[in-house]
Write a structure and sequence with these properties.
Length: 140
């Protein structure tokens, strides 16, 4: 299982480099464990992935958007907001579903893919793409 997860991560690095830019270098065994745990609702593991992909500045935004959760409490149902935003990065389905499919990213059931799509959005629109960033910026 760990080999498959590592292979998937390497494929993402090779096939979708425009999404992740230059992530922090992580020890492969640690990364395998982080990805494996992040596919459930393991807040600390997801925080580590968010930090590796985005850096620290986005942590308050992700906490506000999803509390670092990809799934509902059952760990099976994707977290979808009343406004149609999915997963840990609260990707707006109406706006980004087609692009995620084009990039072969499963924003519903893969925490890692949801984060990669978030990185794509950040590069396209900056942090202002997330409502929480705007709310935090004005002190709401």
């Amino acid at each position: 299982m760990k080999c498959i997860i590592t292979l998937l991560f390497i494929c993402h690095l090779l096939l979708v480099p425009q999404l992740i830019g230059s992530p922090e270098i992580l020890v492969v065994n640690s990364l395998e464990n982080i990805i494996e745990k992040a596919d459930g609702n393991h807040k600390e593991s997801i925080q580590m992935l968010v930090t590796a992909i985005f850096g620290h500045e986005i942590l308050p935004v992700v906490e506000c958007e999803s509390n670092f959760q990809q799934f509902e409490e059952d760990d099976l149902t994707p977290l979808i907001s009343p406004t149609g935003d999915v997963g840990v990065m609260q990707i707006n389905i109406a706006t980004w579903k087609e692009k995620a499919e084009e990039l072969d990213l499963d924003i519903y059931y893969s925490t890692f893919d949801n984060l990669l799509m978030g990185k794509h959005i950040q590069k396209a629109q900056g942090l202002t793409a997330w409502t929480c960033f705007n709310d935090l910026a004005i002190g709401i």
